[in-house]
Amino acid sequence: MTKKLRIALISRDRELSYQIKLHLESKGHQTVDFNNISGVIGYIYSDPPDIIIINVPSADLKIQALICELKRDSYFSTLPVIGLIGENMGDTFDWSRYPMDDFLICPVKYHELFARVDLSITRIQRVFDNNPLTKLPGNTSIQHAIEASLGEKMAVCYVDINNFKPYNDTYGFTRGDEVLRMVARIISIAVRQHGDGGFSGHIGGDDFVFIVRLDHAEAVCRTVIENFNIIVSDLFGEEEKGNGYYLAKDRQGTEQRIPLLGIAIAVVPTNTPELDHFGKVAEIAAELKKQAKKSGESQYIINRRKK
Prior knowledge:
The chain is an alpha/beta fold. It folds into two domains: 6-129, Response regulator (Rossmann fold, 3-Layer(aba) Sandwich), CATH 3.40.50; 139-302, 2-Layer Sandwich (Alpha-Beta Plaits). The protein has helices at 14-26, 40-46, 61-72, 110-129, 139-149, 164-171, 173-194, 217-235, 238-243, 278-293, and strands at 6-10, 30-34, 51-55, 81-85, 102-105, 154-162, 199-204, 207-213, 245-249, 255-259, 262-269, 299-302.
């Protein structure tokens, strides 16, 4: 475990608390232990820890109430709670009344405790980072993936849906969200089909990113565009597809011709000396996307500049 955590340890068993605290602090974690739960909620609300470890004796209503109160709170509901239960409680324990995120059987095996702590933090970071609509990794994971690709023969590919906002405004958020979910699936499948350990992420709105080997980039882009164009044919009627536009009113109530959805992909190879920071990748991609969006047609543009 690389990150040093702030851990709240709650147990009426003072010897158990002492041993667990001793082992956690040997790993560099900061541990605050409570032998009486009366001050726990106040401490958590004023200075939230990274994780809670709580000893759960059978039928302890005060501990049950404490866990339930935390999980009912919209802010603290995501705080990982690991319960310690007795060997004879596993088969009969009522998990619905004690909404914990994980558990350990006492007596505690400390190598397992360290693993569960690490897993709980990793899980919550992953859940927080993933986009709730598409389930793709979000900005923190995207940044790390881009940073890992710098200097390698990889391509960071930024994806933008042309004319998505007027489509969303005209046809409604439900249909707009479905388009985003479909694009996420298209990108993920294309990356898996063509890439070796590629990455797919959702920046937000209609902005996506995928990272693949440089020699696979064009094939993945073509697959994404081809499959997107198939989807577009199901989103509009025959007349609209024949015209290449649909009619919608702008904010002033004036009827406008809105082009059909398209997709623009900016491809930035990361094996160039100029790219020494992930922000530079985004900067170059923004320029390329502007070029790719000018025609309104689905297309990709590759950064060919060498410095």
